[in-house]
Amino acid sequence: MPDGTKGLAYQCIIPLLIEAIKTQQRDIEEMREMFHESLSRNYDNQIKNNEMSLNTIQPVTEKSFLYQNNPNPFSVSTIIKYQLDKFATDGKILILNMQGELLKTYQLTNQPPYEITIYGEELKAGMYLYSLIVDGKEADTKRMILTN
């Protein structure tokens, strides 16, 4: 502008933001697919090694789910709350890196408090997936970020 003030043409930025969101969504879907493949391989290996029988894998009801960890991002610790269906017999939260490698497994109980604490010192700074596995099936997956 002639007086030296600057402005921003938002109509020019909107297409860039939309494309960035589309790219991010494609990345999320690719990571979700890699995660599912990794889980499938892990369960296939367990079944082959007789650690789990096909009879133990049952459908998961919609009553099992995860809450977003809080705080997120975190540096010292974060709490992951969860809900397990009252008929669930086995619940776990798996922590995976973005390449789908299993880093930690937390065995869950179906009794209060329905939460686990993750300590920043247990992992390197970065983005992670955490997945709720109920009776051998993935019930929910979320992302968390650990900072320095």
Strand order of the largest sheet: 4-3-6-7
The CATH topology annotation of the domain at 56-146 reads as: Immunoglobulin-like
**Number of extended strands:** 7
Helical residues, percent: 25-40%
Q: What kind of sheet is the major sheet?
A: 4 strands, antiparallel
Task: Give the radius of gyration.
Answer: 20 Å
How many H/I helices? 1
Order of helices and strands: HEEEEEEE
Name given to the CATH architecture of the domain at 56-146: Sandwich
CATH class assignment of the domain at 56-146: Mainly Beta
- Terminal CA distance reads 42 Å
Structure description:
Helices cover 26% and strands 31% of the residues. The strands form two sheets. A four-stranded antiparallel beta sheet has the order 4-3-6-7. Strands 1-2-5 form a three-stranded antiparallel beta sheet, with no helix packed on it. It has one helix at residues 10-48, and strands at 65-66, 77-83, 91-97, 102-107, 115-119, 126-134, 137-146. The chain is built from one helix and seven strands. With 148 residues, it is of the alpha+beta class. Residues 51-61 have low confidence and may be disordered. It is elongated, with a radius of gyration of 20 Å. It has a domain at 56-146: Immunoglobulin-like (Sandwich), CATH 2.60.40.
Task: List the keywords.
148 residues, alpha+beta, Immunoglobulin-like, four-stranded antiparallel sheet, three-stranded antiparallel sheet, 1 helix, 7 strands
Describe the secondary-structure layout.
Layout: H1 10-48, E1 65-66, E2 77-83, E3 91-97, E4 102-107, E5 115-119, E6 126-134, E7 137-146
Antiparallel strand pairs: 1-2, 2-5, 3-4, 3-6, 6-7
